[in-house]
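WARN retry 2 of 3 for item q-0093 after timeout on previous attempt; input resubmitted unchanged.
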Amino acid sequence: MSENMINPVPEGTNKAGVASSDRRKFLRKSVALAAGGAAIAATSAAHAEDLKTWTEPLKNEPTRHMLGRGVVSVPYGLPSKYESGVVRRNVGWLTADTIASISFTPWQDLHGIITPNGLHFERYHAGAVDVDPSKHHLVIHGLVKQAMIFTVDDLKRLPSHTAIHFLECPANGAMEWRGVQMDSMQFTHGMMSCSEWTGVKLTTLMEMVGVDPKSTWFYGEGTDGSALQRSIPMEGAKDQHGKPIPTEYTSHYQDAMVCYAMNGEALRPENGYPIRLFVPGFEANVSTKYLRRIMFVDKPLVTYQETRHYIEVLPNGEIRQYNLVNEANSVINYPCPDYKLKGKGTYEIRGIAWSGYGKIKHVDVSIDGGKNWTAANLVEPVLNKCLTKFTLPFEWNGDEHLIMSRATDETGFVQPTLKQLREVRGFNSIYHKNSIQVWKIEKTGEVKNVQIENV
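OK item q-0093 returned
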């Protein structure tokens, strides 16, 4: 407490007597506002010498005797130097180079549902590029009444839409299919971020160009070196073999946006500046960055990315294609392997849950390897296709624990165990690993990434 918060007893006041009325009012207020307020109220008759006792533990740091930096000394705000370890990271052996690669968001260091722009995971197929917005155009054509060309400024003049949604690479967790690989939450779940997105709704643009009712797919294309191309289904969509696309996949386009801003500022180059397509709930590769073209068609274009990549071969030889929704998932980010519990006592289990099908309905937490489950508290806001934070009090007495979370979304989809997932998908898959994550708390307080048979 600062010395200026309590006035010394005035001259002539009986030092053993009762404090003044104003002083009593202040101390009563302190009880409600300050930690240890009861102790302060009990010393309401204290005299000036007591101030030394109260403030002695608060030794003056060097910062009490210096001036700080002035305004705009750092024109674009940066984190404290003491948070320098909170950064995106990559796994050197995962890809041949960093051009067609990915970086991971440090969820173990984050405290809410919004990912700061500088920590949003990166995924490149041909590296990040700097696109001049004054020369960039978006063409919308195909099965439409009138093809149109939009500049970036044109898009910013149209009615805007803002929403908070997660964006997840379908390979999030891929390294763990065959067994434990990484003892860090950043690398088990960091191919996912959540942001506030601003742009123009795709349906607004569809009305402007007059999309033909015969159109059942649209195709997005980027202007980077990979020219990433993906087909996205709408109502009535069928694959290239004439098989209907599940209806739970064909309405997601209604939430789609052509975005130009993220978390209140312009998109950054690593996230698609100046504009990108964003389809909430779908695997991130369909949300084409550096967007230059949207074409409406009556069938999927079966591009390289949807035949060579982003498909899964099942144990029976069948191929899963156009499996676009990121299903319900969750993970505890405190405690987790990146930090050690520092002594017995009360902690709070904290985590994040999300689903590409809609809102999270509830999250259960187990501290005994799945034998017993307790409903966690969902922290508002609980939004559609968005991260939801959950918490649960936890008393650690120094024993070993297997802690895990299990999410259920509003459609009734329940996050599966790893055993359940492997029974259907085998051990050699890559995408959509949304199984329950287990952390083991050791008696030392260390936390380890583990996989157990029943989970």
